[in-house]
Amino acid sequence: MDWSRYKPPTYDELIHADGRPRPAARRLIEYITGLSRKDLAERQLAADLAAREMGVTFTVYSEGRNVDRTLPFDVIPRVIPRTEWARTEAGLRQRVQALNLFIDDLYGEQKILRDKVVPRAILKESVNFRAQCVGIRPPLGIWAHICGSDLVRDGDGTLYVLEDNLRIPSGVSYLLENRLVAKRVFPELFETTAILPVDDYPAQLYDTLAALSPRPGEQPVIALLTPGIYNSAYFEHCYLAQSMGVELVEGGDLHVGDDDVCYMRTVYGPRRVDVIYRRVDDLYIDPECFIKDSVLGVPGLMRAWRAGKVALANAPGAGVADDKVVYAYVPKMIRYYLDQEPILPNVPTYLCDDARQRKYVLDHLAELVVKPANESGGYGMLVGPRSTKRQREQFAKLIAARPRNYIAQPTLALSTAPVVTDTGPQPRHLDLRPFVLSRSDIYVTTGGLTRVAMKKGSLVVNSSQGGGAKDTWIVDLEESA
Protein backbone atom coordinates (compact mmCIF):
# COMPACT_ATOMS: atom_id res chain seq x y z
CA MET A 1 0.00 0.00 0.00
CA ASP A 2 1.42 3.34 -1.08
CA TRP A 3 0.89 6.21 1.39
CA SER A 4 2.60 8.85 -0.78
CA ARG A 5 -0.80 10.09 -2.04
CA TYR A 6 -2.30 10.26 1.45
CA LYS A 7 -2.55 14.00 2.18
CA PRO A 8 -4.58 14.83 5.32
CA PRO A 9 -5.93 18.39 5.35
CA THR A 10 -5.40 18.78 9.11
CA TYR A 11 -4.01 16.90 12.13
CA ASP A 12 -4.15 13.18 11.35
CA GLU A 13 -4.46 10.58 14.10
CA LEU A 14 -2.08 8.11 12.40
CA ILE A 15 0.20 10.04 10.06
CA HIS A 16 2.41 13.12 10.65
CA ALA A 17 2.21 15.98 8.16
CA ASP A 18 5.56 14.84 6.70
CA GLY A 19 4.18 11.36 5.99
CA ARG A 20 5.79 9.52 8.92
CA PRO A 21 3.50 7.37 11.08
CA ARG A 22 2.90 8.54 14.63
CA PRO A 23 4.81 6.32 17.10
CA ALA A 24 1.75 4.51 18.48
CA ALA A 25 0.52 3.79 14.95
CA ARG A 26 3.88 2.82 13.45
CA ARG A 27 3.35 -0.94 13.59
CA LEU A 28 -0.16 -0.66 12.15
CA ILE A 29 0.98 1.56 9.27
CA GLU A 30 3.93 -0.71 8.50
CA TYR A 31 1.57 -3.67 8.44
CA ILE A 32 -0.92 -1.97 6.10
CA THR A 33 1.94 -0.77 3.91
CA GLY A 34 2.82 -4.44 3.37
CA LEU A 35 -0.67 -5.13 2.02
CA SER A 36 -1.74 -4.59 -1.57
CA ARG A 37 -4.84 -2.52 -2.27
CA LYS A 38 -6.61 -5.80 -3.08
CA ASP A 39 -5.52 -7.29 0.28
CA LEU A 40 -6.85 -4.29 2.18
CA ALA A 41 -10.11 -4.37 0.24
CA GLU A 42 -10.50 -8.04 1.17
CA ARG A 43 -9.93 -7.21 4.86
CA GLN A 44 -12.60 -4.53 4.58
CA LEU A 45 -15.00 -7.00 2.96
CA ALA A 46 -14.28 -9.55 5.69
CA ALA A 47 -15.06 -6.91 8.32
CA ASP A 48 -18.33 -5.95 6.59
CA LEU A 49 -19.40 -9.59 6.45
CA ALA A 50 -18.46 -10.14 10.09
CA ALA A 51 -20.50 -7.12 11.20
CA ARG A 52 -23.47 -8.34 9.17
CA GLU A 53 -23.15 -11.85 10.55
CA MET A 54 -23.05 -10.47 14.10
CA GLY A 55 -26.22 -8.45 13.41
CA VAL A 56 -24.69 -5.08 14.24
CA THR A 57 -27.48 -2.74 13.17
CA PHE A 58 -29.11 0.56 13.98
CA THR A 59 -32.48 1.92 12.97
CA VAL A 60 -32.96 5.07 10.91
CA TYR A 61 -36.29 6.86 10.80
CA SER A 62 -36.86 7.77 7.16
CA GLU A 63 -40.00 9.08 5.52
CA GLY A 64 -42.20 7.64 8.21
CA ARG A 65 -40.53 4.23 8.02
CA ASN A 66 -37.99 2.51 10.23
CA VAL A 67 -35.06 1.08 8.29
CA ASP A 68 -32.55 -1.29 9.86
CA ARG A 69 -29.01 -0.72 8.61
CA THR A 70 -25.62 -2.11 9.40
CA LEU A 71 -23.31 0.54 10.83
CA PRO A 72 -20.54 1.24 8.28
CA PHE A 73 -17.28 0.00 9.79
CA ASP A 74 -13.90 1.08 8.52
CA VAL A 75 -11.26 -1.53 9.04
CA ILE A 76 -8.30 0.82 9.75
CA PRO A 77 -8.37 1.53 13.51
CA ARG A 78 -7.75 4.83 15.22
CA VAL A 79 -4.71 4.70 17.51
CA ILE A 80 -4.07 6.69 20.71
CA PRO A 81 -0.96 6.28 22.87
CA ARG A 82 -1.60 5.14 26.44
CA THR A 83 0.22 8.14 27.88
CA GLU A 84 -2.20 10.55 26.20
CA TRP A 85 -5.17 8.44 27.17
CA ALA A 86 -4.20 8.50 30.86
CA ARG A 87 -4.56 12.30 30.89
CA THR A 88 -7.81 12.15 28.91
CA GLU A 89 -9.25 9.60 31.31
CA ALA A 90 -8.34 11.80 34.30
CA GLY A 91 -10.08 14.74 32.61
CA LEU A 92 -13.24 12.71 32.03
CA ARG A 93 -13.34 11.53 35.64
CA GLN A 94 -13.00 15.10 36.83
CA ARG A 95 -15.71 16.33 34.48
CA VAL A 96 -18.31 13.68 35.34
CA GLN A 97 -17.70 14.15 39.04
CA ALA A 98 -18.43 17.89 38.70
CA LEU A 99 -21.51 17.25 36.55
CA ASN A 100 -23.01 14.90 39.12
CA LEU A 101 -22.34 17.40 41.90
CA PHE A 102 -24.01 20.07 39.77
CA ILE A 103 -27.16 17.99 39.16
CA ASP A 104 -27.39 17.02 42.82
CA ASP A 105 -27.03 20.68 43.79
CA LEU A 106 -29.73 21.82 41.33
CA TYR A 107 -32.28 19.43 42.81
CA GLY A 108 -31.09 20.30 46.30
CA GLU A 109 -29.76 23.54 47.74
CA GLN A 110 -28.89 25.25 44.41
CA LYS A 111 -25.75 26.76 45.91
CA ILE A 112 -24.14 27.28 42.52
CA LEU A 113 -27.07 29.47 41.48
CA ARG A 114 -27.09 31.34 44.76
CA ASP A 115 -23.39 32.06 44.39
CA LYS A 116 -24.07 33.25 40.81
CA VAL A 117 -21.52 30.90 39.27
CA VAL A 118 -24.25 29.67 36.91
CA PRO A 119 -27.06 32.15 36.07
CA ARG A 120 -30.45 31.22 37.52
CA ALA A 121 -32.07 32.08 34.17
CA ILE A 122 -30.43 29.04 32.59
CA LEU A 123 -32.33 26.77 34.92
CA LYS A 124 -35.57 28.70 34.53
CA GLU A 125 -35.69 28.00 30.80
CA SER A 126 -34.24 24.50 30.87
CA VAL A 127 -36.45 21.96 29.08
CA ASN A 128 -34.80 19.06 30.92
CA PHE A 129 -35.15 20.28 34.49
CA ARG A 130 -37.71 18.06 36.21
CA ALA A 131 -39.51 19.79 39.07
CA GLN A 132 -40.72 16.32 40.15
CA CYS A 133 -37.13 15.53 41.19
CA VAL A 134 -36.57 18.47 43.55
CA GLY A 135 -35.64 17.30 47.02
CA ILE A 136 -34.76 13.76 45.95
CA ARG A 137 -31.29 12.40 46.60
CA PRO A 138 -30.58 9.17 44.72
CA PRO A 139 -28.13 6.58 46.09
CA LEU A 140 -24.59 7.97 46.49
CA GLY A 141 -25.90 11.35 45.27
CA ILE A 142 -25.23 10.22 41.72
CA TRP A 143 -27.70 11.11 38.95
CA ALA A 144 -25.77 10.38 35.75
CA HIS A 145 -24.48 6.83 36.22
CA ILE A 146 -23.71 6.43 32.52
CA CYS A 147 -22.22 9.34 30.59
CA GLY A 148 -20.92 9.58 27.04
CA SER A 149 -18.82 12.69 26.40
CA ASP A 150 -17.90 13.53 22.81
CA LEU A 151 -14.28 14.52 22.20
CA VAL A 152 -12.81 16.15 19.10
CA ARG A 153 -9.27 17.09 18.18
CA ASP A 154 -8.49 20.39 16.50
CA GLY A 155 -5.90 20.98 13.80
CA ASP A 156 -3.22 21.84 16.35
CA GLY A 157 -3.69 18.50 18.12
CA THR A 158 -5.68 19.82 21.12
CA LEU A 159 -8.35 17.42 22.35
CA TYR A 160 -11.58 19.23 23.32
CA VAL A 161 -14.79 18.09 24.97
CA LEU A 162 -17.54 18.88 22.46
CA GLU A 163 -20.56 17.85 24.53
CA ASP A 164 -21.73 15.66 27.39
CA ASN A 165 -24.51 13.12 26.87
CA LEU A 166 -26.21 12.46 30.20
CA ARG A 167 -29.72 11.46 29.24
CA ILE A 168 -29.50 8.17 27.33
CA PRO A 169 -26.00 7.97 25.80
CA SER A 170 -25.77 5.20 23.23
CA GLY A 171 -23.12 3.55 21.10
CA VAL A 172 -21.15 1.44 23.56
CA SER A 173 -22.30 -1.80 21.92
CA TYR A 174 -20.61 -0.71 18.67
CA LEU A 175 -17.41 -0.01 20.59
CA LEU A 176 -17.44 -3.61 21.84
CA GLU A 177 -18.46 -5.16 18.53
CA ASN A 178 -15.87 -3.14 16.61
CA ARG A 179 -13.14 -4.72 18.70
CA LEU A 180 -14.42 -8.23 17.94
CA VAL A 181 -14.44 -7.48 14.23
CA ALA A 182 -10.95 -5.92 14.35
CA LYS A 183 -9.58 -9.01 16.08
CA ARG A 184 -10.93 -11.16 13.26
CA VAL A 185 -9.36 -8.94 10.60
CA PHE A 186 -6.00 -8.11 12.19
CA PRO A 187 -5.20 -11.07 14.50
CA GLU A 188 -1.46 -10.68 13.83
CA LEU A 189 -1.36 -7.16 15.20
CA PHE A 190 -3.08 -8.15 18.42
CA GLU A 191 -0.25 -10.62 19.00
CA THR A 192 2.55 -8.09 18.63
CA THR A 193 1.02 -4.80 19.79
CA ALA A 194 -0.03 -3.98 23.37
CA ILE A 195 -3.61 -2.93 22.62
CA LEU A 196 -5.54 -2.40 25.84
CA PRO A 197 -8.75 -4.47 26.16
CA VAL A 198 -12.29 -3.07 26.19
CA ASP A 199 -14.34 -6.17 26.92
CA ASP A 200 -14.93 -5.55 30.64
CA TYR A 201 -17.59 -2.89 30.04
CA PRO A 202 -20.68 -5.15 30.48
CA ALA A 203 -19.30 -6.40 33.81
CA GLN A 204 -18.50 -2.86 34.90
CA LEU A 205 -21.98 -1.70 33.89
CA TYR A 206 -23.56 -4.57 35.83
CA ASP A 207 -21.53 -3.68 38.94
CA THR A 208 -22.54 -0.04 38.57
CA LEU A 209 -26.23 -0.95 38.41
CA ALA A 210 -26.00 -3.53 41.19
CA ALA A 211 -24.43 -0.93 43.49
CA LEU A 212 -27.69 1.06 43.28
CA SER A 213 -29.89 -1.74 44.61
CA PRO A 214 -32.19 -0.71 47.47
CA ARG A 215 -31.67 -4.20 48.93
CA PRO A 216 -27.93 -4.34 49.58
CA GLY A 217 -26.66 -7.76 50.52
CA GLU A 218 -29.17 -9.55 48.30
CA GLN A 219 -28.72 -10.57 44.69
CA PRO A 220 -30.32 -7.62 42.86
CA VAL A 221 -32.88 -8.10 40.13
CA ILE A 222 -31.87 -5.78 37.29
CA ALA A 223 -33.83 -4.99 34.15
CA LEU A 224 -33.10 -2.93 31.05
CA LEU A 225 -36.20 -0.97 30.03
CA THR A 226 -36.41 -0.46 26.26
CA PRO A 227 -38.98 1.48 24.22
CA GLY A 228 -39.11 -1.59 21.95
CA ILE A 229 -38.12 -2.83 18.55
CA TYR A 230 -38.76 0.45 16.73
CA ASN A 231 -36.18 2.36 18.75
CA SER A 232 -32.99 3.25 16.85
CA ALA A 233 -30.84 1.69 19.57
CA TYR A 234 -32.83 -1.53 20.04
CA PHE A 235 -29.85 -3.61 18.93
CA GLU A 236 -27.81 -2.06 21.73
CA HIS A 237 -30.55 -2.66 24.32
CA CYS A 238 -30.62 -6.36 23.43
CA TYR A 239 -26.83 -6.57 23.32
CA LEU A 240 -26.30 -5.01 26.74
CA ALA A 241 -29.08 -6.97 28.45
CA GLN A 242 -27.71 -10.21 27.06
CA SER A 243 -24.09 -9.30 27.89
CA MET A 244 -24.99 -8.50 31.50
CA GLY A 245 -27.40 -11.40 31.91
CA VAL A 246 -30.29 -9.13 32.96
CA GLU A 247 -33.89 -8.99 31.81
CA LEU A 248 -34.85 -6.93 28.74
CA VAL A 249 -38.29 -5.48 29.42
CA GLU A 250 -40.79 -3.06 27.94
CA GLY A 251 -43.18 -0.89 29.92
CA GLY A 252 -45.97 -3.45 29.78
CA ASP A 253 -43.75 -6.05 31.45
CA LEU A 254 -43.56 -4.00 34.67
CA HIS A 255 -46.06 -2.65 37.17
CA VAL A 256 -45.89 -0.80 40.46
CA GLY A 257 -47.92 -2.15 43.35
CA ASP A 258 -49.73 -0.35 46.15
CA ASP A 259 -46.61 -0.94 48.23
CA ASP A 260 -44.66 1.26 45.80
CA VAL A 261 -42.53 -1.73 44.77
CA CYS A 262 -41.86 -2.30 41.07
CA TYR A 263 -42.64 -5.81 39.85
CA MET A 264 -41.88 -7.69 36.68
CA ARG A 265 -44.52 -9.98 35.22
CA THR A 266 -43.17 -13.51 34.85
CA VAL A 267 -44.69 -16.92 34.20
CA TYR A 268 -44.02 -17.67 37.89
CA GLY A 269 -45.87 -14.57 39.08
CA PRO A 270 -44.72 -11.05 40.01
CA ARG A 271 -41.00 -10.67 40.72
CA ARG A 272 -39.58 -7.61 42.45
CA VAL A 273 -37.21 -5.45 40.37
CA ASP A 274 -34.46 -3.57 42.23
CA VAL A 275 -32.70 -1.62 39.49
CA ILE A 276 -33.88 -0.42 36.09
CA TYR A 277 -31.41 0.69 33.43
CA ARG A 278 -33.92 2.73 31.53
CA ARG A 279 -33.37 3.55 27.88
CA VAL A 280 -36.65 5.46 27.76
CA ASP A 281 -36.67 9.25 27.89
CA ASP A 282 -37.78 11.01 31.10
CA LEU A 283 -41.04 12.23 29.66
CA TYR A 284 -42.18 8.71 28.76
CA ILE A 285 -41.16 6.69 31.80
CA ASP A 286 -44.23 7.31 33.94
CA PRO A 287 -47.63 8.54 32.67
CA GLU A 288 -48.61 9.42 36.24
CA CYS A 289 -45.95 12.16 36.25
CA PHE A 290 -45.14 13.06 32.67
CA ILE A 291 -46.84 12.40 29.31
CA LYS A 292 -50.22 10.99 30.29
CA ASP A 293 -50.79 8.72 27.30
CA SER A 294 -47.28 7.24 27.16
CA VAL A 295 -47.32 3.48 26.73
CA LEU A 296 -43.53 3.17 26.89
CA GLY A 297 -43.20 3.66 30.62
CA VAL A 298 -44.65 2.29 33.83
CA PRO A 299 -47.42 4.04 35.80
CA GLY A 300 -46.13 4.77 39.30
CA LEU A 301 -42.44 4.28 38.47
CA MET A 302 -41.51 7.73 39.79
CA ARG A 303 -43.47 6.96 42.95
CA ALA A 304 -41.47 3.78 43.44
CA TRP A 305 -38.20 5.64 42.77
CA ARG A 306 -39.04 8.46 45.19
CA ALA A 307 -39.91 5.86 47.84
CA GLY A 308 -36.49 4.28 47.38
CA LYS A 309 -38.02 0.95 46.35
CA VAL A 310 -36.36 0.88 42.93
CA ALA A 311 -33.26 2.54 41.48
CA LEU A 312 -33.25 4.17 38.05
CA ALA A 313 -30.18 4.70 35.89
CA ASN A 314 -29.74 7.35 34.73
CA ALA A 315 -31.85 9.06 37.35
CA PRO A 316 -34.78 11.11 36.01
CA GLY A 317 -33.76 14.73 35.65
CA ALA A 318 -30.09 14.00 34.92
CA GLY A 319 -30.62 15.51 31.47
CA VAL A 320 -30.66 18.99 32.99
CA ALA A 321 -26.87 18.95 32.52
CA ASP A 322 -27.21 17.44 29.02
CA ASP A 323 -27.77 20.90 27.62
CA LYS A 324 -25.33 22.69 25.36
CA VAL A 325 -25.85 25.93 27.30
CA VAL A 326 -25.07 24.23 30.61
CA TYR A 327 -22.05 22.65 28.86
CA ALA A 328 -20.49 26.10 28.55
CA TYR A 329 -20.37 26.35 32.35
CA VAL A 330 -18.71 22.98 33.07
CA PRO A 331 -15.20 24.47 33.52
CA LYS A 332 -16.67 26.82 36.14
CA MET A 333 -18.39 23.85 37.81
CA ILE A 334 -15.08 22.02 38.08
CA ARG A 335 -13.47 25.01 39.76
CA TYR A 336 -16.51 25.60 42.01
CA TYR A 337 -17.15 22.05 43.25
CA LEU A 338 -13.69 20.50 43.02
CA ASP A 339 -11.40 23.51 43.38
CA GLN A 340 -9.39 22.21 40.43
CA GLU A 341 -8.47 23.49 36.98
CA PRO A 342 -10.18 21.58 34.13
CA ILE A 343 -7.89 18.98 32.60
CA LEU A 344 -9.83 18.83 29.32
CA PRO A 345 -10.86 22.12 27.70
CA ASN A 346 -14.28 22.97 26.28
CA VAL A 347 -14.61 24.13 22.71
CA PRO A 348 -14.97 27.96 22.91
CA THR A 349 -18.72 28.58 23.06
CA TYR A 350 -20.91 31.64 22.45
CA LEU A 351 -24.23 31.81 24.28
CA CYS A 352 -26.99 33.41 22.26
CA ASP A 353 -29.01 34.49 25.31
CA ASP A 354 -26.20 36.93 26.08
CA ALA A 355 -26.83 40.07 24.02
CA ARG A 356 -23.16 40.78 23.32
CA GLN A 357 -22.34 37.21 22.38
CA ARG A 358 -25.53 36.92 20.30
CA LYS A 359 -24.52 39.97 18.25
CA TYR A 360 -21.15 38.37 17.55
CA VAL A 361 -22.85 35.14 16.49
CA LEU A 362 -25.27 36.90 14.15
CA ASP A 363 -22.41 38.91 12.65
CA HIS A 364 -20.32 35.77 12.06
CA LEU A 365 -22.87 33.09 11.13
CA ALA A 366 -20.89 32.22 8.01
CA GLU A 367 -17.90 31.21 10.17
CA LEU A 368 -19.56 29.43 13.10
CA VAL A 369 -21.36 26.18 13.87
CA VAL A 370 -24.73 26.94 15.47
CA LYS A 371 -26.43 24.25 17.55
CA PRO A 372 -29.75 24.00 19.37
CA ALA A 373 -29.33 23.43 23.10
CA ASN A 374 -31.06 20.07 23.37
CA GLU A 375 -30.99 18.35 19.99
CA SER A 376 -28.79 15.34 19.31
CA GLY A 377 -27.74 13.27 16.34
CA GLY A 378 -26.42 16.30 14.44
CA TYR A 379 -29.94 17.55 13.74
CA GLY A 380 -30.94 21.22 13.69
CA MET A 381 -27.38 22.54 13.19
CA LEU A 382 -26.02 25.23 10.94
CA VAL A 383 -22.47 24.66 9.71
CA GLY A 384 -21.71 28.24 8.71
CA PRO A 385 -18.91 27.74 6.16
CA ARG A 386 -21.09 25.26 4.26
CA SER A 387 -24.38 27.11 4.57
CA THR A 388 -26.33 29.16 2.06
CA LYS A 389 -27.38 32.77 2.60
CA ARG A 390 -30.98 31.60 2.94
CA GLN A 391 -30.05 29.07 5.64
CA ARG A 392 -28.17 31.75 7.58
CA GLU A 393 -31.17 34.06 7.37
CA GLN A 394 -33.42 31.29 8.68
CA PHE A 395 -31.08 30.64 11.60
CA ALA A 396 -30.88 34.33 12.42
CA LYS A 397 -34.67 34.31 12.83
CA LEU A 398 -34.56 31.15 14.96
CA ILE A 399 -31.93 32.65 17.23
CA ALA A 400 -33.85 35.90 17.59
CA ALA A 401 -37.03 34.01 18.48
CA ARG A 402 -35.42 31.71 21.09
CA PRO A 403 -31.92 32.91 21.99
CA ARG A 404 -31.68 30.59 25.04
CA ASN A 405 -32.02 27.62 22.69
CA TYR A 406 -28.86 28.28 20.67
CA ILE A 407 -25.11 28.26 21.10
CA ALA A 408 -22.37 28.77 18.54
CA GLN A 409 -18.83 27.47 18.29
CA PRO A 410 -15.94 28.08 15.90
CA THR A 411 -15.61 25.58 13.07
CA LEU A 412 -12.78 23.32 14.19
CA ALA A 413 -10.41 21.68 11.75
CA LEU A 414 -11.43 18.24 13.04
CA SER A 415 -8.68 15.67 12.98
CA THR A 416 -8.75 12.88 10.40
CA ALA A 417 -7.73 9.25 10.09
CA PRO A 418 -7.45 7.07 6.99
CA VAL A 419 -10.43 5.05 5.77
CA VAL A 420 -10.49 2.43 3.03
CA THR A 421 -11.81 3.73 -0.30
CA ASP A 422 -11.75 2.45 -3.87
CA THR A 423 -8.67 4.59 -4.50
CA GLY A 424 -6.79 3.53 -1.38
CA PRO A 425 -6.70 5.11 2.12
CA GLN A 426 -8.21 8.60 2.26
CA PRO A 427 -8.51 10.98 5.26
CA ARG A 428 -11.91 11.42 6.90
CA HIS A 429 -12.91 13.49 9.94
CA LEU A 430 -13.80 11.78 13.20
CA ASP A 431 -14.67 12.18 16.87
CA LEU A 432 -14.54 9.96 19.95
CA ARG A 433 -17.18 9.02 22.51
CA PRO A 434 -15.78 7.41 25.68
CA PHE A 435 -18.27 6.11 28.24
CA VAL A 436 -17.97 6.87 31.94
CA LEU A 437 -19.67 4.90 34.73
CA SER A 438 -20.18 6.61 38.11
CA ARG A 439 -20.70 4.74 41.39
CA SER A 440 -18.55 4.93 44.57
CA ASP A 441 -15.64 5.08 42.12
CA ILE A 442 -15.53 6.11 38.44
CA TYR A 443 -14.82 3.80 35.52
CA VAL A 444 -13.85 5.03 32.03
CA THR A 445 -13.85 2.82 28.96
CA THR A 446 -10.46 2.19 27.40
CA GLY A 447 -10.73 4.60 24.51
CA GLY A 448 -14.25 4.86 23.19
CA LEU A 449 -16.41 4.72 20.12
CA THR A 450 -14.68 6.43 17.20
CA ARG A 451 -17.28 7.79 14.82
CA VAL A 452 -16.09 8.76 11.37
CA ALA A 453 -17.62 10.79 8.55
CA MET A 454 -17.59 8.45 5.56
CA LYS A 455 -18.07 11.31 3.07
CA LYS A 456 -15.07 13.30 1.91
CA GLY A 457 -14.87 16.65 3.70
CA SER A 458 -17.95 16.03 5.86
CA LEU A 459 -17.77 17.05 9.53
CA VAL A 460 -20.91 15.10 10.49
CA VAL A 461 -20.05 11.77 12.05
CA ASN A 462 -23.47 10.70 13.38
CA SER A 463 -24.62 7.26 12.27
CA SER A 464 -28.10 8.65 11.62
CA GLN A 465 -26.57 10.92 8.98
CA GLY A 466 -24.30 8.49 7.19
CA GLY A 467 -21.39 8.28 9.60
CA GLY A 468 -19.53 5.07 10.33
CA ALA A 469 -17.23 3.72 13.02
CA LYS A 470 -13.71 2.49 13.67
CA ASP A 471 -12.10 0.43 16.37
CA THR A 472 -10.12 2.56 18.82
CA TRP A 473 -6.78 1.23 19.98
CA ILE A 474 -5.11 2.52 23.13
CA VAL A 475 -1.55 1.33 22.61
CA ASP A 476 1.03 0.90 25.35
CA LEU A 477 4.31 1.54 23.55
CA GLU A 478 6.40 0.25 26.45
CA GLU A 479 4.62 -3.10 26.47
CA SER A 480 4.47 -3.66 22.71
CA ALA A 481 6.70 -6.50 21.52
Automatic annotation (TrEMBL):
InterPro entries named among the record's database cross-references: ATP-dep_Glu-Cys_Ligase-2 (IPR051680), CP_ATPgrasp_2 (IPR025841), UCP005522 (IPR016450)
Domain of life of the native organism: Bacteria
Residue span, Circularly permuted ATP-grasp type domain: 77-453
The protein's name: Protein containing domains DUF404, DUF407
Native organism: Dokdonella koreensis DS-123
Lineage: Bacteria, Pseudomonadati, Pseudomonadota, Gammaproteobacteria, Lysobacterales
